[in-house]
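Submission sheet (multi-component)
Chains listed below:
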Amino acid sequence: MLAALQLCTGNGESFRNDKMMPQIQPQRAIFLSLFVLLCLTLLGARPLSAQEGAPMNSGAVSPNDVNEIAKDLWCPLCSGVRLDACELKACEQMRDMIAVQLEEGQNKEQIKAYFLEQYGPQVMGEPPLQGFNLLAWILPFAALAGGGIFVWRRLRKMIVQKPQPAGVLTPAVEEKYHQQLEEELKRYG
Amino acid sequence: MIYDIGHLILLTSLVLAVCGILAGFWGGHRRNTRLIQSSYNAVYAVAALVTGATAILWYGLLTDAFHLSYVWNHSERALSAFYKFSALWGGQAGSLLFWCMILSVYSAVVAFSNRNRHLVLMPYVNAMLLVSSLFFLTLLVFATDPFKRVGFLPPDGQGLNPLLQNFWMIIHPVMLYLGYVGMAVPFAFAVGALVSKRLDNEWVHTVRRWTLIPWMFLSAGIIMGSQWAYMELGWGGYWAWDPVENASFLPWLTGTAFLHSIIIQEQRGILKVWNVVLIWLTYFLVILGTFTTRSGIIESVHSFARSDVGPYFLVYLVLILFGFLWLLFDRLPLLRGEHTIDSYASREAAFLANNWLFAGIAFATLWGTFFPMFSEILTGERISVAAPFFNKVNGPLFLLLLLLMGAAPLLGWRHTSLAAFRKQFTFPLVAAGGVALLVFVFAPSLYPIIGLAICAFVAATIVQEYVRGVAARRITNGENALLAMVNLWSRNGRRYGGYIVHLGIVMIGVAVIGNEFYQESLNVTLARGERATLGRYELVYNGMASTRQANRIEFDALIDVYNLESGRRISEISPQRNIYDKAPDMPTSEVGLYMNPVEDVYAVLNGWEEGGATATFTLYINPLTLWMWVGGIVLVLGTLIATWPHPTHRRSEAVRSLAYAVGDD
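Outcome: structure written.
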């Protein structure tokens, strides 16, 4: 389960930015690192179509070459079954068609475009980035951002309004108590 | 005759459920002890009767009563007794009856174990549990009768769906039902608290365990379903984000969020509204999930119209939605928080972020699952929303959640000082950096580096917490390490059991990353005696063997697995195809599997020619996948530790019972 961690096939690009901010506050550090991580992962989560399709040779096409493309396509008749794993006759014929197109020298993107045209967006396994279907992509992130802003504002309101309660230790005092505790533990431990 | 009694029993249960609901709500409102007692009796009677009706259907299945439509459609003479027994949940009417039976038994256990506690809350809880039972009894009596006759006596049944004739498919639905149905209990307590206006922490404290138990079953059910998909469907994966899988995952997401957010309510008296909303959402998603899988609405809006139970579900969902919202708005003034949050760097803030992410993932999953339906209605175009969508949208969110899972336990309640921050995070960050470096050197790829580093970070936080806990006990009590650890579990099982659950999730995360990013596959046709090389293994095909079973023929391909470097034979695997007599057009697959902690050798038999002279296979190397199943077991063990009552807790419960007994409630 949790196949969700598959974001894209990873093309080795690095988005690393190791610059550390000096004297960074712990709470800021948490949110900053969460934000950076989100940006990193979102930046990298490009659609599979962004991958370059390697030009195919015109020699004999192996089932592995066919499956390499069929893995990115979906059975138009079943629910959530990949083309390389579907056992329907129709899908077998679709795989044969991939082999024919590979022999003709078509590349991955051309073959995928052909199937999209022939069978509609159902073969892509994801909503196309156009028209009404754009909503499928936008709404989850909009809802997440909206929820995030709501939580953030509520949290900020609580923290700003809240006077420092008398019983709460300041970091300096806590540090002092911590040292005292360590010393006493050493003495009696 | 006996089957007429079965139907009559269901009808009687329905009437009793109505009486129990009225007795519960009215008795609770008037504080009438006789009516309240009636609500308890109704819960017990419904449980006994529905169990009786289920036993009658089981009897019909085991004795081949093919004049019953359900038995005729889902069983056959040649089926083993084991599968005849499990055919109860192989079809719609039987599975709804099974649902209802589990719910009624859960209700009876809740009523009995709380018979002397929560005297104000319990009448409403009984009534709400009976409302859920009533809905399913209505379906069974009016829409899909499990005791319906076919009008003639067929010589044999049509057989059970071949895909369901698998060991994991026997246990998986049971676990899932135990999880699904159990979520009705915390929901009933939430409604009871709202109706009775007893909105302190009492109900939250009580439902923690009643949520953890179904959550554990739901988690185990999901993992077992993945195991089934992995072993049976033969595409090298375990989770396809199809609507049925998502239906089980959605209440898991909101239920997990609820389990975390009630901790804040218990500790700080805040998030009261959010908690009742979350448990309502979980219950709503349970009913919605059953609705989507039973009505076929996701596959096509047209199948909804043909469904005999779909409209009933829709009405019930609308009732739950508006009924709950009305109740919530009416009680809003009573749900004010008692404290506020003091700092961003506090555990409360981390829990809020956790809930935000869980809610976001649940929304994205729900939206993606239903989007094809919206698209079909509004544009007339059928599209598919499958793994690519869910992986891209949910993937980054899961990574963040995993990171938070490690960071949150390191933060203090209310505020974390810089010194404490440094002390808590140094070791886990170093561990994460070390693992990132190792992955970078040996298997460089961006996402696995991030993912595995985060997994290492979380694992290191857990180890650190255990080491500190054990060290503290060794110093204060002079216990040895093993005893100290056992005592950590028994004294503070909630916290240390929770860490074990987190460890299980980390293992599952590692397995997901291994399988998704480092999987290798090969399609080959081999002649007898021919070899294929994949990864560090060499596989030799030794021909086919067939075995006649009672209701099918099994075809096994015999493959020896050798270590490529040493040339040593390490295992024999046999991917299999089963051709069932009653469904020859639906051959099923059993993969051949050699598992070890590093990687699985996974073989699927695609076909063979000339009696097995040649055979075609898809071979996979699935790295780290074993850890998914180990992680599942660890998660269950951790939940058991967290659920187990520890001595202090037992004492405090006894004191509370005494308090209620003397009229403190």
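Remark: Confidence is low (pLDDT under 50) at residues 657-665 of chain B.
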